Amino acid sequence: MESQLVSEHESQAKEVARIRELIQAEIAGFDPARHTGIKEWNEAILADFKSALIEPELMEVNLPGGVTDFAYAVTETKGPYRVFWLPWSDVFSLAVESRFGPCDISVHGDAIGCFASV
Q1: Superkingdom of this entry's organism (predicted)?
Q2: For 84-118, what is the HEC assignment?
Q3: Is-above-0.85 flag for pTM?
Q4: Using DSSP, how many helices (H) and how many strands (E) does the chain show?
Q5: What is the share, in percent, of the chain residues with pLDDT greater than 90?
Q6: Which long-range contacts (CB under 8 A, 24 or more apart) does 77-80 make?
């Protein structure tokens, strides 16, 4: 039992490290002047995204079709929205908070893009 808990902890630590790497790579590669749209708007999105980042936190998420699973929240809420990383898909997702917990709304892609869609 103890070895199973250690194994789960190691697995979660690896997932958190991967999430951090993905986000840092996105931030490093995000050029507001070259990104679609207006440079100043892109700069504001990037600053807002950086300030909303949290330590990845494993949470239960409601998925389409009434399924639930665990994913990592990577931002604090922005209004009723927050960004998650879905480990089974290796993709970021936008979720809306509800009385039943966060609900994936099928907006998937990179973390900054998901965040900027609200």
Answers
A1: Bacteria
A2: EEECCCCEEEEEECCCCCCEEEEEEECHHHHHHCC
A3: yes
A4: 3, 5
A5: 86
A6: 78/48, 78/52, 78/115, 78/118, 79/118
* Whole-angstrom distance, CA of residue 107 vs CA of residue 14: 25
Fill in the amino acid letter for 59. Answer: M
Question: d(Cα 29, Cα 97) in Å, to the nearest integer?
Answer: 29
Whether the Cβ atoms of residue 22 and residue 85 lie closer than 8 Å to each other: yes
Q: Which tokens is 115 given?
A: 């965040």
SS3 of 44, please?
Answer: helix
Q: How far apart are CA 79 and CA 38, in angstroms?
A: 23
Q: Is 17 helix (H, G, I), strand (E, B) or coil?
A: helix
* Collapsed DSSP state (helix, strand, coil) of residue 16: helix
Residue 56 to residues 20, 21, 86: CA-CA distances in angstroms?
Answer: 8, 12, 11
